[in-house]
Design a protein that fits this description.
Strand content: under 5%
Order of helices and strands: HHHHHEEEHHHHH
Helix content: 40-55%
Radius of gyration: 20 Å
Number of strands: 3
Structural class: mainly alpha
Amino acid sequence: LSQWHDWCEKSHATLRKIKENLKSGGHIKKGRNPQEPIQLIIATQRPIQIILNMISKMESEPVFDSSLVTSAIHYRDILLIKMMLSNPLRVNHFSIMTYANDNTGNLYKNENGQWRLRFLPDDFKNQKGAACGPYDVALSPWLYHDIERYFERYRSHLYGADTSNCVFLPGKRPGTKRISCINLTPMVISQRVFDITKRYIPGCPGFGAHAFRHIVATDYIKNNPNGFQVAASILHDRLETVMKEYAHI
């Protein structure tokens, strides 16, 4: 065991050295601009409106499914997109998000009937910076109907609903053994968002879940020029980071 740890430490040190040499030599470069797929969206005065139009198309699309699995996936996706627009956290948070009837999950309903979302500092990538405190915010009433409809009518038809407390679940997989930790992984969520945006936004090549953070922040700052602090709060990020990222706006 000690030899294994020694080998791991040596390998880690070697890889760090290689990375430092590549970085100092200018060999590590960004392959593409991650905002490229949303350039036409964030170039508008109200980028959020394009997402709202997409949601309207999703909601108006008829779904015919006697098994309710397709319907469950459809309304799961609507709730997912709406929550990403309302609370543009990182995709991992939507993957690990939980709900429990006793209100011990990340998504919960308080004694006043208000839906809220909470995460611990450890759940955040930047826990040593802006996310050093807990995240506990009220959700927009705009989401209430979608949340309650999803839990009352559709979530039970998704894979793992009887054993997992994750909010967002995949479609059923016949013949597959259910496990307690089933959820939608960050990669699967991003791919799903890519497919949805490509399908419902005219001329859009599709984009992943992280783009919602850029769309929401850009919209707010464009329409509130002194709103960097609020944008930082929305993203649960450092003011300095947001100012650096969106100063060009």
